[in-house]
Amino acid sequence: MSSVAETRRDYDFTALSHVLRRAVVLGLVTAVVVVALAFVTRLMDGILEAAVGGVVLLFGLTAVTVLPGLWTRARTIEGIAGAAGIGLAATVVFLLVDVALLQPLGVYTNRWREIGGGSNWWYHPVWWMVGTFLPWMGALIVANRARRGRADSVGGVMGVAVVAAVVIAAIAVVAGFPGAGWNLSTFGVAFLPGLAVAALISSLGRSTA
Fold it and tell me: Which of 23, 51, 138, 164 has the highest CB neighbour count under 10 A?
């Protein structure tokens, strides 16, 4: 008679309760980062603003990109999808805080919302897409590293992505890409393709399995 007991899997944690709890945490972390950046841009300028703002921005990008994949211990498409789900649900949590508190209090100048004519119906989907894309790519890198026998590592996920983002941002500035400049905004936008490049690179190499 075979045992009905199943060995507990130690990867791809995607139970709905787990995803939602982590999403609340990540959504609140995102809100804190946005508020911190708002104060940095209001109270500082020049090199100090770039230095402090860069640290805050990098912290926020790291949290959104890396934490969901670590929380699900992404190893297969199950864990990668779960991480993307955490990211998507976290944007909903953040946007609730944004609409209820940040926008009414005028905490920060919302340039994205202004570009969309002041409509949340344009602005919110941008957050949904970016907030899902970052953890999706981050979890893919986590899973690819694990496939090659490498331990979960924040630096392992972010290192190549940051370098690629800096290179892409520099190319955009030198090439005169509209709106590109030597600033945090350009780096933030360049991080998206930079992360995609990092995910592609992480897929190269042989599996140790």
Answer: 138
Q: Which tens digit of pLDDT belongs to each residue from 16-72?
A: 999 999 999 999 999 999 999 989 988 888 899 899 999 999 999 999 999 999 999
Note the pLDDT tens digit of each residue in 136-187: 999 999 999 999 888 888 999 999 999 999 999 999 999 999 989 999 989 9
The DSSP H or E segment spanning 127 is: helix 120-147
Q: What are phi and psi of 116, to 5 degrees?
A: -85, 15
Domain assignment present for 207:
no
In a domain, 65, yes or no: yes
Q: Torsions phi, psi of 154, nearest 5?
A: -65, -45
Q: What is the DSSP letter of 118?
A: S
Calpha distance 159→24 (Å, rounded): 26
Q: Is residue 144 part of a domain?
A: yes
Instruction: Determine the structural domain holding residue 32 and report its residue range.
Output: 16-150
Note whether residue 75 is domain-resident: yes
Q: Please give the Cα distance from 92 to 124 (Å, whole number).
A: 9
